[in-house]
Design a protein that fits this description.
With 328 residues, this protein is α+β, with helices and mostly antiparallel strands. It contains 7 helices and 9 strands.
Length: 328
Amino acid sequence: MKTPKLEDDYRELDLEPGASLEEVRSSYRELALFWHPDRRDDGSGRASKAHQKMTRINLAYERLRKALSRKGHSGVNHAQAGRPRSQGRAEERPPAGSQRSQEMRTNTLGMRFVSVQGRSVLFSIWETRVQDYKTYAEAVSGVDGSWNSPGFAQTPTHPVVKVSWDDATRFCAWLTEKERREGKLPTGAHYRLPTDAEWSWAVGIGNREGSGRPKDKGNRLKVEYPWGTAWPPPKGAGNYAPSLGADSFDFTSPVGSFAANAQGLFDLGGNVWEWCEDFLDGKSGVRVLRGGSWNFSGAGHLLSSYRNGVAQGARSEGIGFRIVLVPG
């Protein structure tokens, strides 16, 4: 059997040879959505052909991801690389310039924030780290100390866990006041948890779930995961339950241990569940959690659209948070 060449794999993903790892990931996500068999199951045989195409796409992506990861290939030769050859999926692509025309800011804790397509807020590229929360806990009296005893070893760059929704919102209020006092935050700007709708844009599903309460949206997109449409998650997709074999971490992993998504955000799948502003039913009750965690393995629980919900005072070794910056 003829051994596939990387040039062939690039072309399978509608890219010219030499495209960057970031471009490979972006094109893979678009192709996976376009060719998934569930979207073509109309009894005409199209689903079978789509399955064969999807198999080739998955294999090409895995070979390129491994090859480029080994080389540390992240640069982009815009003169010749990364320009899709196919025009048949134009309607499936995000608007021109949406991928990397991003504003980035770094705050006083070293947290980095980028813009997200379709939203005005800036998202932290990482989940809030132990070192970020430690600074807060040392500056404010009366902070619950559960975060400092997760039950397993963590370094300063691991995501903080065992923080409740109330803990997370107090952190945001403290950071806002701190940076306003130091003259680092423009008038009107502030930190907070992301809304459920903002989180959907960050993970790449935008407003395709339609309207309604968060719990109503959770089952509308059946085949989309933060890494694509394949199941189980491929190796390196993120930090999930050990039984899935996607990573080598038994518990949490340092933020940024896996590749960022197309918008430059890390760990939107796995590592820790992330608190959102919203109530799961829209008005009261439990709060929304998104993204899965290191100790979850169910296919339904790891969908990009899945909403978990727990009481806002709950603390768990699988729950952390990510914050957004609302510009002034």
